[in-house]
């Protein structure tokens, strides 16, 4: 009389042999397998056990794949002099204001100059550069000086225009009058 229990017959009906029985430890995937970057054990040597470190040919200890690892950004495991992941770079606090100041330095030079200076100072406090603010300062200074020269020129011409207007008053249009040593036609 035969049992239908495969364990009692010696061979299992599905052809599985040398399989551990229920409750025995099964090997885990990747256990005792070398990880990427680790040295393979030489012929005749046993691989390092869980939690142990293997010696590298350069005299440094390489960590077990399951060993303690450093935190992100700590630089652990990186090449000498290399920084770890630092995250996103900080945003420049004067960047947007620098762009606005640059545009206004062309359209309204004094206002653009002031805004560009404020943006440049904000960026410097954050230890960052701001090319738009610097360009806005340069353009704002040049255009403000040009605008000041134009305004002074117009102010200087106002008395001359009033004197010409007094000479041409009461004279028909197109009549020539002498104005500051030159002959001028009245409007």
Word description of this protein:
With 187 residues, the protein is mostly helical. The chain has a domain at 95-185. It is built from three helices and four strands, in the order ββαααββ. The strands form two sheets. A two-stranded antiparallel ribbon has the order 1-2. Strands 3-4 form a two-stranded antiparallel sheet. A hairpin with a 5-residue loop joins strand 1 (54-55) and strand 2 (61-62). The protein is rod-shaped, with a radius of gyration of 44 Å.
What are its keywords?
187 residues, two-stranded antiparallel sheet, single chain, mainly alpha
Give the gist of this structure:
The protein is mainly α. It has helices spanning 95-107, 109-125, 131-167, and strands at residues 54-55, 61-62, 176-179, 182-185. The protein has a domain at 95-185.
Ranges with pLDDT <50 over ≥5 residues?
A: none
Class computed from helices, strands and strand pairing: mainly alpha
Provide the succession of SSEs.
EEHHHEE
Major sheet attributes: 2 strands, antiparallel
Number of continuous helical runs: 3
State the helical fraction. 25-40%
Strand content: 5-15%
Layout of helices and strands, plus pairs?
Blueprint: E1 54-55, E2 61-62, H1 95-107, H2 109-125, H3 131-167, E3 176-179, E4 182-185
Antiparallel strand pairs: 1-2, 3-4
Helix pairs in contact: 1-2, 1-3, 2-3
């Amino acid at each position: 009389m035969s049992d239908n229990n495969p364990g009692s017959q010696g061979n299992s009906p599905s052809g599985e042999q040398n399989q551990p029985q229920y409750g025995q430890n099964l090997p885990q995937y990747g256990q005792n397998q070398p990880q990427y970057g680790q040295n393979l054990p030489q012929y005749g040597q046993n691989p390092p056990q869980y939690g142990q470190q293997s010696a590298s040919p350069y005299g440094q200890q390489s960590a077990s794949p399951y060993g303690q690892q450093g935190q992100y950004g700590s630089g652990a495991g990186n090449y000498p002099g290399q920084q770890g992941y630092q995250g996103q770079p900080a945003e420049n606090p004067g960047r947007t204001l620098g762009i606005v100041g640059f545009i206004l330095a062309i359209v309204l030079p004094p206002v653009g100059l002031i805004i560009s200076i404020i943006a440049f100072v904000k960026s410097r406090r954050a230890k960052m550069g701001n090319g738009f603010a610097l360009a806005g300062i340069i353009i704002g200074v040049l255009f403000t000086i040009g605008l000041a020269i134009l305004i002074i020129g117009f102010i200087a011409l106002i008395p001359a225009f009033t004197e010409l207007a007094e000479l041409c008053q009461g004279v028909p249009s197109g009549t020539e009058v002498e104005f500051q040593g030159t002959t001028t036609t009245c409007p």
